[in-house]
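Data availability (excerpt). The following record was deposited with the supplementary files.
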Amino acid sequence: MAKVGISDVAARAGVSEATVSRVINRRGVVAMATRRVVEEAIRELGYERGAQSQLIVVLSPGLAQPFFGRLCELIEAALASQGFRAIVGSTTVGGLQEIDFISSTMDLGIAGAVFASASNTLVGADPTVYQLLQERKIPVVSVNGVIEGVPAPSFSTNDAVAAEFAVDHLWALGHRDIGIIVGPVGNRPSDRRLAGFIESMTSRGATDPQRLVVHQVYSVEGGMSAAETLLDRGVTAIVAASDYMALGAIRAARRRGLNVPGDLSVVGYDDSQIMEFVEPPLTTVRQPIERIAQSVATAMVHLVNRAQVPSGELLFDPELIVRASTAALRA
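Predicted structure:
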């Protein structure tokens, strides 16, 4: 006989799984009448309290960066509203830290794991950490990159659309020599952003857009180095794969005595909260992290409760936020 889960109790009581979770964990406000209905369903079905862990591991790189910190915060809040607690870990993408963190937390009895732009973004990543989770039948959800060989749901920003938005904006401003700074080869979001950039430029008649592509690490310094190369190649506009890279590009331009956006237009990616307050305020492509975080939490709760969740990747369209770092090409 199959073990009774929260989804079974919710169906019997005619309430949401979140309500059942609040009753079981005695957290949040639940009307007395609703509580009685849930308690009765628990008794009728023989649900075993305490049989299910409420701990979810969330792994992400660079929590010091505002974007990743905000993403984890939103996932944590969305899980909390469903009666779960998140353990957030900052790990090196694809490094041994992920394996160590998962191994140690599995002993605590975790209910699930979320890979938020972690090793799931790498092509050919070491599968050991996923094998450990599969052996324990611990469900997995990923953000911004599917996990190879693991039939799990993934929620990602549509990077091809993000590139199209950036190119379309700059092209409309008269720019034709548009360069792009992307992350290392083999980083899924970066590779997809680059493919979208090449397609967008080619469809507009640009010749050899690959000439204005530079790969670098995701940092201010990486953006500076890449921008130096692109400026030497005569670009008038730069699309960066992260806001921090964009800030590096602006710094490199200023050190050459160039004005942003007068001499060089720059578009970032992510829309970290502080980008509205830098100088100049950064034009950027905003990832819809609120919707992604909510989808991650909903999928994880369903998986923990043994409900069906479609595997594969669901793409969310980003939004272009136009500020003051882009302007029309000077005649």
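Summary of structural features: The CA atoms of residues 141 and 300 lie 7 Å apart.
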